[in-house]
Amino acid sequence: MKAIAQTLGVSRSAVQERLKGRSRPRGPYRKVDDAVVLPLITALVSARPTYGYRRIIALLNRQMRESGTAPINHKRVYRIMKANHFLLARKYEIRPDYGHEGKVVTMRSNLRWCSDGFEFHCWNGEVVRGAFIIDAHDREIISWRAVVNAGISGSEVRDMMLEAVEKRFGTCQAPAPIEMLTDNGSPYTARETRIFARQIGRKPCFTPVKSPQSNGISEAFVHTLKRDYIHVSPLRDAVAALALIETWIEDYNDYHPHSGLKMRSPREFRTAQIATS
């Protein structure tokens, strides 16, 4: 049988099936209850068009756990999405020759906070610029500021820093020094900002010049913000944009699955960390 199969260039199982007069039906593999899962996946893909199958799987299984249903295997979700053309197109990029060999991520929350700015244009030409503070461990956006047709000032950065401390600790001073990793922008390097940072328990740290990868956590959030929120939202004018930013931040903190947090949202991850500590 083996020699015949090799001569014909087919598998032995195929030859045996032919000899027994049996043949398996051709066509894509399906399960009976795929029709139940498909509408759930379709709803998630429609609501989150920029999400790949890994994040769709995380959201789907989050729904399953909340309803008391067993989670669905990731291979099955991938198969269903592929059959219905829901997968995102593959994106091939040439990685830059330079890299960052340091480690920005910390082992627990409130050891290092990172900050950076973002900018986008509205449909009427108005420019919105903002800044934020993100924890280097749990990736939660703790505080943020945004302005229209202007730059973020040092006073706004200081207000944002104080708000972050108050949100995390309930007081105006951190119980232990927290590193504040930023670029070399003037709102962060200003003498008043550095003095104020130390007064509330912050330790200013600055990335090397022309080294955005040294603040990779902040850069990753800006990329996520633009890809999953800004580019798919109606931005008629600055008033509409400012109203949406808070919604985006809350959605990111509460809902967005993060690959660095085992596909949990920042607050979901932080809640689990607090419960086990």
UniProtKB/TrEMBL annotation:
Q: Which InterPro entries match?
A: HTH-like_dom, Integrase_cat-core, RNaseH-like_sf, RNaseH_sf, Transpos_IS3, Transposase_IS3/IS150/IS904
Q: Which residues form the Integrase catalytic domain?
A: 92-274
**An example of a Gene Ontology BP annotation on this entry?**
DNA integration
| Superkingdom as given in the UniProt entry | Bacteria
Could you cite one Gene Ontology molecular function of this protein? nucleic acid binding
| Protein's UniProt name | Transposase InsO family protein
Taken from the record, one Pfam family name reads rve
